[in-house]
Design brief:
Layout: H1 5-15, E1 58-62, E2 110-112, E3 116-122, E4 127-134, E5 149-153, E6 170-172, E7 178-187, H2 188-193, E8 202-209
Length: 210
């Protein structure tokens, strides 16, 4: 008589000689009294070990979230003796309509960007927020990354500027949504010493378990 492989496997499984892959071996015990009624109650115990895995997750959003935001800092001078907003063009005021008083221009207390919204969350322990600068061309207009100041609300920027030093970091509280705003600026004295032109830097923020 021809016996197929499937029939052999089925017979082995039914007889307990072959286990099914993926099944675990159960814990077992028994209580027994040969007299039929034990002097004290008998019992049987079995245990299971419950294993829980919670994945580690870190979230970080700086700005609008789906693009790299441009943080624009534009200096606007006030010139003594000239009222109102300066007008683009050549030879503006020729003929006596302007009256510069001969003093250096004033850039106010600072040149400031709009506030950038920041959000982070993690369930990891010892997580920190750090930053690093790349594609830095600020030196071409006589500025440095340390001269780009950052003011924070609630969620502190890693350091008070974009210098992003090795020791500049912000602790991220585990299992707590942390939010805040960062505003970038240049002090008036540094703007006054800067050369005319346009320059930039890219600041990359990293939230990680250290």
């Amino acid at each position: 008589m021809k016996i197929t492989t499937n029939k052999i496997l089925a017979a082995l499984i039914a007889s307990g000689l072959l286990g099914v892959a993926g099944n675990t071996i159960a814990d077992s015990s028994y209580g027994y009294s040969s007299s039929g009624v034990a002097a004290s109650s008998i019992s049987a115990k079995a245990s299971v070990k419950v294993n829980v895995t919670v994945p580690e997750l870190i979230l970080l959003r700086v700005g609008t979230g789906n693009v790299v935001d441009n943080v624009n800092i534009t200096a606007t001078p006030t010139v003594g003796g000239i009222t109102g907003t300066l007008t683009n063009g050549n030879d503006v005021g020729v003929g006596g309509t302007t009256n510069w008083d001969g003093t250096a221009p004033n850039f106010g207390t600072s040149a400031t960007s709009t506030a950038v919204n920041v959000y982070t969350w993690t369930n990891a322990d010892n997580a920190k927020l750090t930053c690093a600068v790349s594609a830095d061309t600020l030196n071409t207009i006589n500025l440095t990354k340390a001269k780009i100041k950052v003011a924070s609300t609630t969620l502190a920027h890693p350091g008070t500027s974009t210098a992003c030093g090795a020791s500049d970091s912000t602790n991220i509280t585990r299992n707590t949504l942390m939010t805040g705003t960062w505003t970038y600026s240049i002090d008036a004295a540094d703007v006054l010493a800067a050369y005319a032109g346009t320059a930039s830097e890219t600041v990359t923020y990293t939230a990680a378990r250290i």
